Amino acid sequence: MNISKPLILNGRPIGGGKEPLVCMPLVAKTESALLHELSIVSAKAPDLIEWRVDFFEGIADTPRVLALAAQIAQAAAGIPIIFTRRSIREGGEKIALNEAQVLALYQAVCAAKCVDFVDYELSSDPQHFQAALHAAHQAGVQLIASFHNFQQTPPSAEIVAKFIQAEQAGADIAKVAVMPRVIEDVLTLLSATLDGNRIIKLPIISISMGSFGSLSRLFGWVFGSSVTFAVGAQPSAPGQIPVEELRTVQEILQRTLALR
């Protein structure tokens, strides 16, 4: 019996319902570099690929973004794609777009139906969030409502409140990523994940970042996190682990838990 909730796409659980799903990021700055990075990542057979478009030098050129998104989808050969612009306030790259222009980019990407998921931040203007949600759902794209804190780990109750907020906002998946200052903060994140997974109906993605937080990437699924992020070519956040090492640990844990 699974602990985490599956991500459903086209009526079927991604990865056949295995846990956790493994997502690998794309962070290259140019088309050629990104497609090369994709060839490395896709060869490692992730369950999901996240395009961090805030790293892309052409983010301000919507037709260029759409053309590249279509190329990524074709080259990924069926691996679901997450489209993400991470803001500076939540650890992303500086870009030449204001928030209204970011929303317009998301609307165009959703309308083009070249991605399967979009990640949009809970800290965004509520009207922008609802507009992004409407664009996604109108196009049959799922929305991940995300919250990132690169400075600290809030109390467990505040993390659970973010999961609840994501569900109440109408999102399809709730994501929280926080930074531990001490190793006990990882326990806070895992406890909040366990509680959140019991309280809300949505799949949860939870991440503790940095060196301490790498523990959550290895066994956060045991507490209810549906997805973990691993390095395929280059990391997109601190604490990401090479996928080969991640899979080795997961196989050991899964065999051990199967003996219960």
Primary descriptors:
260 residues; alpha/beta; TIM Barrel; nine-stranded parallel sheet; 42% helix; globular
Overview of this protein structure:
- The chain is an alpha/beta fold and 260 residues long.
- The protein has a single domain (17-257), classed as TIM Barrel (Alpha-Beta Barrel).
- 42% of the residues lie in helices and 19% in strands.
- The protein has eight helices and eleven strands.
- The chain has helices at residues 31-43, 62-76, 99-112, 126-138, 156-168, 184-199, 210-219, 243-257; strands at residues 8-9, 12-13, 21-26, 48-52, 81-84, 117-121, 142-149, 173-178, 204-208, 227-231, 241-242.
- Strands 9-8-7-6-5-4-3-10-11 form a nine-stranded parallel sheet.
- Helix 3 links the parallel strand 5 and strand 6 (117-121).
- Helix 2 (62-76) crosses helix 3 (99-112), helix 3 packs parallel to helix 4 (126-138) and helix 6 runs parallel beside helix 7.
- The radius of gyration is 17 Å and the shape is globular.
- It starts with 7 loop residues before the first strand and ends with a helix.
Quick recap of the structure?
This protein has 260 residues and is α/β, with parallel strands linked by helices. The chain has a single domain, classed as TIM Barrel, CATH 3.20.20. Helix content is 42%, strand content 19%.
